[in-house]
């Protein structure tokens, strides 16, 4: 067993539980379910995405996740993993875990309608004594509101909020490495959630529900704002025709006070912008740092194209984007700024080509075609396949990835 697999191994629980995960076929729910199966619980993935569940039943992962290809077949063979589209299966469970996405609306305010609809369905199939754990990112105050609704209906279930903080693609590793934030609408709910997560051998940190909700939002908002600082500095360096990567190395080298300085690059994905906007909405849109960060990060693709136009007549050129996922070595295109870059380039260039080794799309071409037919290359995602790529054509690498030494 390799080191990563050993890190993901968990101990067998003494008192196995029946656990349902709503949104269980997704990037948060499925790895969590596999980890729970691996330590002895029986898990039912409840999800309305029938095609995704069919893939899982066949023993195939619908997306990339370290160690999941080994754990999924094992969970199915032991009979601990089940799939369902029927919320009625919730009534037989000891623990119900909610991992559905919580989007923002067209005004970038939290949209609670989908969450409320799911919870109404859950309420129809609960029984007294169950533990309900919310792992979705929610607007501050949602958990206490949920607790009041459950008390008013006398459902007699314990409600806790325990946010996930894993990096997509590394969930099975980090579930056994990172401390778990735990909260509950009552002391009993908090203690039950703490006992449940202790099976992973994690350190448990207890908070109030609103502290846990804000803790998750603070985490993603901090990262998003931090990326925007680096991206703003990158833009400033470009305006002075200075090499941002040389500056980055110089000011971070053996200088601990700059350890938190992120590299420049696209800050996309399904969480960072959304959660920053949720935090801004909670503060009546007074989180000006978050709104400024959005302007910087979302403006980076346009800035890149404007800089290219200074030195090239793009109207007759073919420009290629290397990597369309929202981050490196990932197969998830959700909210990837590479697509925004493609849209801007389409208005300016003769032709735009895209490639990605992790994403299948009829619109994409091979790396060989890219290197042969493009006039300019732009790095969109830091996939290992692109490390040290050899080309004599201009390569725009905001991340400083292609010239970086492999760790």
Automatic annotation (TrEMBL):
Keyword NAD: yes
One GO BP: polysaccharide biosynthetic process
EC number(s) recorded for this UniProt protein: 1.1.1.22
Keywords in alphabetical order: NAD, Oxidoreductase
InterPro entries hit by this protein: 6-PGluconate_DH-like_C_sf (IPR008927), NAD(P)-bd_dom_sf (IPR036291), UDP-Glc/GDP-Man (IPR017476), UDP-Glc/GDP-Man_DH_C (IPR014027), UDP-Glc/GDP-Man_DH_C_sf (IPR036220), UDP-Glc/GDP-Man_DH_dimer (IPR014026), UDP-Glc/GDP-Man_DH_N (IPR001732), UDP_ManNAc/GlcNAc_DH (IPR028359)
Occurrences of domain UDP-glucose/GDP-mannose dehydrogenase C-terminal (ranges): 320-404
Pfam families (UniProt xref): UDPG_MGDP_dh (PF00984), UDPG_MGDP_dh_C (PF03720), UDPG_MGDP_dh_N (PF03721)
Molecular function via GO: NAD binding; oxidoreductase activity, acting on the CH-CH group of donors, NAD or NADP as acceptor; UDP-glucose 6-dehydrogenase activity
Presence of the UniProt keyword NAD in the record: yes
Transmembrane stretches, start-end: none
Family listed: Belongs to the UDP-glucose/GDP-mannose dehydrogenase family.
Record protein name field: UDP-glucose 6-dehydrogenase YwqF
Source species: Gimesia panareensis
């Amino acid at each position: 067993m390799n080191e990563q697999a050993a890190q993901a191994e968990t101990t067998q629980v003494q008192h196995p539980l029946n656990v349902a995960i709503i949104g269980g076929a997704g990037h948060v729910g499925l790895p969590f379910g596999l980890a729970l199966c691996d330590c002895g619980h029986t898990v039912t993935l409840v999800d309305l995405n029938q095609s995704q569940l069919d893939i899982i039943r066949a023993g195939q992962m619908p997306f990339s996740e370290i160690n999941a290809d080994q754990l999924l077949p094992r969970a199915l063979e032991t009979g601990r993993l089940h799939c369902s589209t029927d919320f009625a299966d919730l009534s037989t469970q000891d623990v119900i875990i909610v991992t559905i996405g919580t989007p923002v609306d067209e005004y970038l305010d939290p949209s609670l309608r989908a969450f409320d609809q799911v919870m109404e369905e859950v309420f129809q199939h609960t029984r007294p004594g169950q533990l309900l754990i919310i792992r979705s990112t929610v607007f501050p105050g949602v958990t206490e509101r949920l607790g009041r609704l459950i008390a008013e209906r006398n459902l007699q279930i314990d409600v806790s909020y325990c946010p996930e903080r894993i990096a997509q693609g590394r969930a099975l590793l980090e579930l056994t490495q990172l401390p778990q934030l735990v909260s509950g609408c009552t002391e009993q709910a908090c203690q039950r959630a703490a006992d449940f997560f202790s099976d992973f051998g994690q350190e448990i940190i207890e908070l109030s529900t609103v502290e846990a909700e804000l803790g998750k939002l603070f985490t993603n908002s901090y990262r998003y704002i931090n990326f925007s600082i680096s991206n703003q500095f990158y833009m400033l360096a470009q305006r002075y025709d200075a090499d941002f990567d040389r500056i980055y190395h110089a000011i971070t080298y053996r200088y601990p006070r700059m350890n938190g300085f992120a590299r420049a690059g696209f800050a996309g994905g399904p969480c960072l912008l959304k959660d920053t906007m949720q935090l801004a909405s909670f503060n009546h849109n007074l989180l000006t740092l978050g709104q400024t960060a959005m302007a910087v990060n979302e403006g980076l693709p346009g800035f890149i194209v404007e800089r290219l136009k200074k030195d090239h007549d793009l109207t007759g050129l073919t420009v290629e984007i290397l990597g369309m996922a929202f981050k490196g070595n990932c197969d998830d295109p959700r909210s990837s700024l590479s697509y925004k870059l493609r849209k801007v380039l389409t208005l300016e260039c003769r032709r735009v080509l895209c490639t990605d080794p992790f994403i299948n799309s009829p619109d994409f071409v091979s790396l060989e075609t890219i290197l042969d037919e493009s006039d300019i290359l732009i790095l969109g995602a830091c996939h290992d396949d692109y490390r040290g790529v050899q080309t004599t054509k201009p390569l725009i690498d905001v991340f400083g990835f292609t010239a970086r030494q492999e760790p």
